[in-house]
C-alpha cells in the first residue's frame, strides 16, 4: 500500500474557488482529483447549471467591478463591461481554465457522496458518476469548495399564519415572468432581494414590497464616473473603524444624500457593522413609488400579509431572499455542526484544527470580491500541502479562532448572515503574512 504522502488530494467543486485552487495545486506539482457534480465548470455563476445548485438568474451581473473581481494573474478583458453579466463571467472562467491547463484536470458529472477520516491521517472519499458508477478512494487531504450560496435558508421560526399565494426562495428565481403581474412581497434587503425587487418594479404591474427587520445601507455601483468599490484600498482599510465609517458616510451622502428621502428605511446599525447592499437602481425606483418598504412580517393572512407596523398588504407571491445555510451533504450527520448558524470555526477561515488534512475554500463573506481571496487561500493551501508552509499547533489555532470570533461578535449583529464576514484587504494581507511567517518557520 502507498504511504500517505503518495496519495492524491481531493478537491470538491469546480466553481470560481475550486478553479483557482486547482491552478495552485497544479502549479505546485501536487497530484489531485477535482470532482464537479455538473457537466461544466463555473458553479454558481453558470446560469441553468445542470448540477442543480446555481442561484444565478437570467439578468444577473456582478456587483463588484471587473478589476477587483479578477484573479491576480489573469485580468478580465477590457471589452467586458465594468460590471459584467454572468455569461461574461463564465467565459472568463473557461478562458482562465484553458490558459492554465486546469480544464483537463476536472472530473465532471461526478458527485462526492461521502467524506470521512480513516483514522490514520487519510480520508476516504466516495463518489458517484451521473451514469451510476460509484467509486471509493483514499486521499491525504480534502479541500471543500462546494460553495455556500446554494442551500436556501428560511426564517426561523416560520411566520405565523398561512399564505394562499405562491412562495419562492430567491434561489429559485430566474426570469421576470415569475413576478410579472403579481403583488410581490420580498423578505430581505440583501443584493438578491434588491435585484429581484428592481426587476419586478420595472414590469410596472402589481405592487412590490420589501420587508426588512433591520434595513441596510445602500451603496451605489457608480460614483463620479468610477466604480464605487474602487474607492476601497489597503490604506483606507488600515484606518480606525470610526474613521472608515465617517469617510464612507460622507461619500454616500455626496452620492445620493439621505436614503430615507427615497423611502428606504434607515438601517438600525451603523455603517460597516452590517453587510451593505449594492444597487444603482433601488433608490431611484423607490423614490418613484415603485418599491415599498415595510418592517418584519407579523402574520400571513391567506391573500394578505400583516406587517409589524399594523399594515396589511395584499400579495400573491412571497419571495424569501433570506440567504443561505452552509451545507456539506457528503459529511455524516454530527461530523460538523454548522447548519444552525453557519458556525464554521476555522483557522484563518480555511483550516479545521480538529481534523488534520481537511480544508475549506472561500467560506467567507467579504466586503469586496471573493475570487481574489479564494485565490490567495488556494496558494496558501498549495504551500501547506507541498510542505513549504507549516501550521501552528492545534491549541494556537483554536485560540486564534476564538479571538476572531470575539472580534466578529463585537462588530456585527448576531445572525447567520455575518458569521463568515471578513474585510477584503485586511484578510488578504493576513493570509499573505501567514504564508510568509509559516515559510520562515521551516527548517533550513
Brief overview, please?
This protein is of the alpha/beta class.
Describe the structure.
The chain is globular. It folds into two domains: 4-151 and 324-441, FAD/NAD(P)-binding domain (3-Layer(bba) Sandwich), CATH 3.50.50.60; 160-320, FAD/NAD(P)-binding domain (3-Layer(bba) Sandwich), CATH 3.50.50.60. Strand 1, helix 1 and strand 2 form a beta-alpha-beta unit. It has 444 residues and is an alpha/beta fold. It has helices spanning 16-27, 66-69, 86-99, 191-201, 234-237, 241-256, 282-287, 371-386, 394-411, 424-441, and strands at residues 9-12, 32-35, 106-107, 110-117, 123-129, 134-139, 141-144, 160-163, 166-169, 184-187, 208-211, 218-219, 222-223, 226-227, 277-278, 292-294, 297-302, 304-307, 312-314, 317-320, 358-360, 365-367, 421-423. The strands form seven sheets. It has a five-stranded parallel sheet, with helices on one face. A five-stranded parallel sheet has the order 9-20-10-11-16, covered by helices on one side. The protein contains ten helices and 23 strands.
